[in-house]
Amino acid sequence: MLVRWKQFLRELLRRRVFRAFLLSFILYKSVFNSFSADYFLPRLLESFLQARVHLETRCFSLFFGFEFENVRIETKEPFPEENLLQAKRLALRYQIPMLLLAKLKVSEIALESAEIHLHERNQIWNFATLLKPSDEKKEEEEPKEPLSSLRTWIPVAAEAHLSLKDVRIDITKESQPNSFVSIEDLNFRFDLVTNRFTNLPFDYTITEQIDQLYLGFNPERAPSIQIETKDLNWKQSLPIGLLLDWNRDRDKNPHFLFTSKIGSEQIQFTYKNKPVTFGAVLSHHIEYFPEEDKVIFRDIALSILGDRWLQIAGLANNVTKDNRHIDIAVTESKINLEPLHKLLLQLDGIVPKIALGGNVSFSGTTVKGTGKETIFSLVAIANQLSISSSGKTHQIPTLLMNLGLGVDFSEGKSKSAEDPFPWLQSFFIDQCQLQYNGIKIDISGLMDKGKQLDLDVSLENLRLVEYVSMLGGTTKAKVLIRAKDFSNLPVQLALSVERFRYSLDRSRSPDSWLGLFGDIRLFFSGPFQLAFLSIPKFTLNQKTLSGADALALQFQGDVRLGEEKNINIKPLNLSAKIPFLLQTVPLFLKEKIAPLQSVIGDHPELKIDSNVLLNSKYQKVILALTGKIPGLELSDLSIKMDLLRSLAENEKIQINSFQMTGYENILSLKSAGSLEKKGGKSPLGPYFGNLDLNLSLKSSTKKNLLKGISFSGNVNLSTKIKDFDIIGEFQSDHSNIHQTNHKCPGLECKAFLVEDLDAKIPFHHSLNWTRKESLIVGDKSQFIKNYGRTLEPNLKIGQIIGTHPSIPDLPFEYVKRQGTLPGFSARIDYQENYASIESLKAYTLDGLVFGKNIVFNVGTSSPSQMEFRGNLQIRDIDLKQLMAPKVRDKIADGKLKADLNISVRDLTEPVANMDLFFSIFQIGSDFGKSALNVISPQNFLIDRIADSYAVNTIDISLSKGLVYADVFFRRSILSVFINLEDSKISQQRMPLANFLKRARSEIETYQ
Predict the structure, then answer these.
(1) Could you count the other beta carbons within 10 Å of the beta carbon of residue 144?
(2) How far apart are CA 375 and CA 402, in angstroms?
(3) Which of 48-62, 119-133, 769-783 has the lowest mean pLDDT?
(4) For residue 8, what is the enclosing H or E element?
């Protein structure tokens, strides 16, 4: 037998195949053994890593894997000789021969009794220094589409086992002093066995390839956690358990188990030297039974500080079929905020102060339904909820909520305007009552897809001042929606504010009542894409506390949205009752409105129709306004405007038409043209103008205009604005203007009549005026411009009649017609911002007033740039006509002759900047005595002088607010006894205020 065996070995050794196999086996064992691994493997790893590697090999096989003991990895600079990893056992076991049976098997991946030390220094972690830097630059690869599955082409089964046992992880950060984290006793196990597959998908369907799955994270023993930082010190064993067990064929009884428990009822730590104790536990227990196709949710619970905040239980049947059914409910819920409040008291000084109270419960909340429709029903009850923080308290005494949603995620419909939530089949709000800080909110609603959509919201006792400091009052509101779907939502709004008030410019309005009522229709072109807004009716009313109407606003219209927006308001009616409105506005507005009451009247009204078109290229506005302004006795105000604004780089406003009419079309204002931005200095804000303006008053008969003013005739003002120039002409043809206070005849009658006004005055005003040499210094044109001819007057007034200044209810001719000649005439020219008046002639008081060399410099229309100069000659006017009859009879001679020269520069202070010379060279004795009394205070000597001398000439000058006066006398018989040097009396440097005071006192003696 032994001989045969030797002969068989001899013949076997002679074969080449066997010799090659034997040689390969010897070479394989010479390389893949524990001794060579102990020598070569650390050196091989150190050639790729910046670390020292120590290990003891127990198994080193190319076909069956590796196993090492006493593994240690030490880092180098900048962490010299620090242990990054230290483990008692490290194993990677697999079985390559199983590939012959078309099976991928990883028998074991294990890490046991290991310590991992993570260390950070200078923003660098020790594990980041393991790999040696590479000098080769990697070429950027084009991104590839991620794989959705892995195809093996031949049926393959897989098996893998991973475990971590007694692992410890330490984390140290030097960038945060005294920062250390340690987790001990980490245990993890993962087992996976699949069935045979040729295609492995990378989505949720991968679960169909799993036969067995086990995942356990510390399911039996709690890990120990230690955290030490500057403020926090925590060391405790904290349960963090997770278990997932799935076996399709466990004794032919498939089973799925998923459980967890995280947290503890007693968690204790120290934060900023203050002990803190609380408890929080999250746990769940879910089982799946494939033979019944049923999932049981035995317990899903959250406990905080000993209270079961939430506990859920239920089941789901036919989970893998189309007719699946789910029934889950909140079986217990008790959220008591009092223990949480006590916990926050422990953290006083650490967290902001906050006070909590009350309780909440979600018991009764359910999820029920099938695969086609699932009903979510939320039940919430709260009592005496209170949250206080930063001086603000939020109180919810009562909350009752019962609402539900019906959803269906199976159909996968796309969103639309009618159905923005395709998955939402229905909803209902049986009860939603909330009280918050005194506010009462009540909501109810119902939605049945495609059939009904109802929502009612009511709100009471909302105090505006708690949310907007500038507003006050108590608000009550109600909103109703009745629709078929979400594409067309009609909204009814009713809102009222009791004791409404507001603050403006440090003043507060009195209390009033404010009401807002409206119907609004919202049209959507896509899911909540508002395309059209229709307002059939909208009303805003404000009343005083006594119930009187102060302000009323009503309008209707529509708004179209999109790339081109269109706002159409037809009509908007605004009505105000000013006496009552003044009782509702703050002092700041009252001071501005009250002076206008006499102008606008007690009950002004406006009606506006407007159409506004907005897009990226232009804006177009068409406006029609009508109104009544009682203070102006204007009952037919009409304004029409058509305006186009271009939004190009050079913005342009095109006024196609503008027309304003009133007083039965007596008053008319028309305009057309454009305003354009051209850059550089511009005359009208940022714009250059090219406008035509025309203002006219035309009536063949006497018609009322403003309050107490009537007009007849034809007045026209035409103007052309071109860049910096304003050119135009003022014309009047036999116009008459009458003004009265409606108390004539009578003692309180005040009237003023201007009759036969004829004018044709051209003008040219420049908006680019620059200051030139002052006209009041000297102007030689006044000597030569009229040489050889006199221009015709272009302003004529037949006569001016008014109420006598001293005699009530008596007409008086201030300007008197002279047969066929007008009582007033003048030549007015306005060129380059200068108005010159020549040949002024006025017949008044049975005398004549001449004016010449009158120039008014408008300049830039700023008072500081304005100047005035003029000469007047007064001839034979009779001042007695201004006196009452009793006074008039006592005056022997009231005739007056005088010359007046005046010039003013800078009209911001006209008196201080005025130079005036007034020379009276003929005056009656009575008025002469009065003039002497004004110039010099009355005394015995002055009385004797007035009796001894007759006034010959009076010269009065005004310069820099001081009056200089000289009174020259003619000798009489009494002058033999009273001798006056140089026959005059002088008064020097008399303040103007004293002069006017004496003049007023002297005039009162005549009255």
Answers:
(1) 6
(2) 13
(3) 769-783
(4) helix 2-14
The residue among 387, 328, 316, 408 whose CA lies nearest residue 362 is 328
Q: What angle do CA 971, 975, 976 make, to 5 degrees?
A: 125
Cα dihedral 127, 130, 133, 134 sign: negative
SS3 of 288-331: EECCCCEEEEEEEEEEECCEEEEEEEEEEECCCCCCCEEEEEEE
SS3 state at 158: strand
* In contact, 493 and 475? CB cutoff 8 Å: no
Q: Which residue has the higher pLDDT, 540 or 782?
A: 540
- Given pLDDT bands bounded at 50, 70 and 90, which one contains residue 176? confident
Question: Which residue type sits at 796?
Answer: K
Determine the residue type at 695.
Answer: L
Q: Which two tokens stand for residue 204?
A: 């949720």
Report phi then psi at 665, rounded to 5.
65, 15
Structure tokens at 320: 């893998």
Rounded CA gap, 500 and 468, in Å?
12
Considering the entire predicted model, what is its pTM? 0.71
The radius of gyration computed from the CA coordinates of the chain, to the nearest angstrom, equals 52
Select the more confidently predicted residue: 40 or 143.
40
Task: Examine the pLDDT at 753 and tell me if it is beyond 60.
Answer: yes
User: Quick one: angle between helices 925-935 and 992-1006, nearest 10?
Assistant: 140
| Residues sharing a CB contact under 8 Å with residue 303, sequence separation 6 or more, in sequence order | 263, 265, 279, 280, 281, 282, 309
In this predicted structure, what is the pLDDT of residue 534? Answer: 93
Cis before 78? omega within 30:
yes
Which of 195, 204, 192, 264 lies closest to 234, judged by CA?
264
From CA 214, how far away is CA 246, in angstroms rounded?
6
Q: Please tell me the number of Cα atoms within 13 Å of 818 on its side-chain side.
A: 15
- CA distances (Å), origin 936, targets 730, 966, 998: 47, 10, 9
C-alpha dihedral (8, 11, 12, 16), degrees to nearest 10: 180
- The better pLDDT of the pair 959, 979 is held by 959
List Cβ<8 Å contacts ≥24 apart for 930-937: 930/1002, 930/1005, 930/1006, 931/967, 932/967, 932/985, 933/998, 933/1002, 934/995, 934/998, 934/999, 934/1002, 935/965, 935/967, 935/985, 935/987, 935/990, 935/998, 936/967, 936/985, 936/987, 937/998
Does residue 453 come out as left (phi exceeding 0), alpha (psi in the -120 to 50 range) or beta? Answer: beta
Two tokens, residue 376: 């979510």
> Tokens 């010379």 sit at which residue?
917
Residue 353: what pLDDT?
83
Q: How many residues does the chain have?
A: 1007
Cα→Cα distances 811→312, 895, 989, Å:
101, 21, 40
Q: Using the 8-state DSSP alphabet, how is residue 134 labeled?
A: P
Of 251-260, 316-325, 927-936, 982-991, where does the model show the most confidence? 316-325
Nearest alpha carbon to residue 255 among 216, 284, 296:
296
The half-sphere exposure of 630 on its side-chain side, counting CA atoms within 13 A, is 11
For residue 815, what are the contacts with CB-CB under 8 A and spacing of at least 6? 797, 799, 800, 823, 824, 842, 843, 844
**CA-CA distance, 513 to 473, in Å (whole number)?**
9
Q: Which residue has the higher pLDDT, 399 or 945?
A: 399
20, burial (CB in 10 Å: exposed 0-12, middle 13-18, buried 19+): exposed
CA-CA distance, 230 to 176, in Å (whole number)?
8
Best CA proximity match to 51, nearest among 134, 108, 114, 131: 131
pLDDT beyond 80 at 929: no
From the centroid of its chain, how far is CA 113?
A: 62
Average pLDDT, the chain: 83
C-alpha pair distances (Å), 627 with each of 643, 889, 949: 21, 54, 67
